[in-house]
Request: fold
Amino acid sequence: MTPETVGGLRCPVCHGPLMQMGRSLRCAKGHSFDLAKEGYVNLLPIQKKHAADPGDGKEMVRARRRFLEGEWYGPFRRMLATLCCQYAPQDRPARIVDAGCGEGSYDRAVLDALQQRGELIGFDLSKEAVRLAARLVPQAAFAVGGSFCAPVRDGWADLLLNVFSPMAREEFLRMLRPGGYLIYAVPTPRHLYGLKQILYQTPYENPVQQTDYEGLRFVERRDVSDEITLKGDQIQDLFAMTPYYWNTPAQGTQRLSQCTRLTTEIGFGFLVYQKPQP
Ligand SMILES: C[S@@+](CC[C@H](N)C(=O)[O-])C[C@H]1O[C@@H](n2cnc3c(N)ncnc32)[C@H](O)[C@@H]1O
Ligand SMILES: [Zn+2]
Reply:
């Protein structure tokens, strides 16, 4: 964490600004949040914690990390980094928020591309994801927190990133400064179609994402597609990081466990929006 990123966080209890004091963050009203040894902070209000361990579980997060360490999603990382460089303010370091940041691989790529001209706050409901992210990107601030009651101050962000995480339009608008940009990555209709052909009797394409969100001006959409081939455990890692992990019939899971080689289309659509100036 840097003073700049700590200055972008807000107290989950009273919504006041936080200051770092030793190994904890505190607001003026005395609410205090300890930094974990990896440097992240838990800013999830207790009453918002609907499960004992909300967000993606340890196994899913670790599978995601192993998979993202490979080059298969490299084209997506590079497109996100390119868009951040394009939409970042050119005269000062960009303030970036990654909502539902996961284990931080995209954040690492974005800050590397900006060559340290960026201050990044990432948050996610999953403590394990935030823990791994904080280790991978020590200069950023990571918090356990949810998108629908986000731990970031009003108007702090120049760029708000959302890669395959819930869309919380009102909170995204609140965190963005006027003129700031939302970069929202969604699956293309054919994303992971080859995986779904094994899992389901009648695979379906992903629905085409709507592009209209009240209060946000649609700027552009950029699609990135590829075809990848995975072997052995790589297939299970990919499966474990998808929503299909939760809702695939046993027969489908069984077919996938016998699969030693998988070729599938992959595709991300990057939707760019601007919060209009008043
Ligand atoms: C599909 S993963 C994407 C993670 C990361 N953006 C990536 O692409 O690698 C979705 C993430 O959203 C998180 N998540 C789910 N609901 C959330 C919420 N309401 N607020 C914040 N994060 C949430 C999950 O814990 C998970 O890490
Ligand atoms: Zn407070």
User: Anything to note?
Assistant: Residues 3-274 form a domain with the Rossmann fold fold (CATH 3.40.50.150). The CA atoms of residues 219 and 273 lie 5 Å apart. The mean pLDDT is 94.
